[in-house]
Amino acid sequence: MSELEKDCLFCKIIRGEIPSYTVFENDDVKAFLDISQVTKGHTLLIPKKHLENIFDYSQEDAAKYLQYIPTVAKAIRESDPAIKGMNLEVNNGEIAGQAVMHSHIHLIPRYSEDDDMVVPHVDNSSQYSEKNYQAVANAIKSNLE
């Protein structure tokens, strides 16, 4: 476990220095209940390699760690017949709401439309023309490896 950070909260959980309610673990990843439990079953999936956020992932890292999302998501869904859907949330950087600087994916079960969970999204489409959309798309395309 040489690829873990000494003072990282999630690295400490991986090392067993801090207890967690583990739901899945193998050599690559660990999934455990989020202490906040936004909804019952709210789980975090983390790589067992310290990667700060998605911007640190190589293609190999993505293949190695993200392949377990469906495994954990399906297990959560099957754990409670009341689960109707699930939000996957990944916050990258403090500005995006990342609180622990170790890559993690929130798997948040949804039980009903009125479960008090807020998923904030803003529709800014009125500010974009076809030309604006194409310029943004081109800027992104030009940076693909």
- The average pLDDT score comes to 94
Structure classification: alpha+beta
Rough outline: globular
Which radius of gyration do the C-alpha atoms yield? Answer: 18 Å
| Helical coverage, percent range | 10-25%
CATH class: Alpha Beta
Topology (SSEs and partners):
Blueprint: H1 9-15, E1 22-25, E2 29-33, E3 43-47, H2 59-65, H3 69-78, E4 85-89, E5 105-110, H4 130-141
Antiparallel strand pairs: 1-2, 2-3, 3-5, 4-5
Can you tell me about this structure?
The chain is of the alpha+beta class and 145 residues long. The chain has a single domain (9-120), classed as HIT-like (HIT family, subunit A, 2-Layer Sandwich). It has helices spanning 9-15, 59-65, 69-78, 130-141, and strands at residues 22-25, 29-33, 43-47, 85-89, 105-110.
List keywords for this structure.
Histidine triad (HIT) family protein; HIT family, subunit A; alpha+beta; Histidine_triad_CS; HIT-like_sf; 145 residues; 17% strand; globular; 4 helices; 5-stranded antiparallel sheet
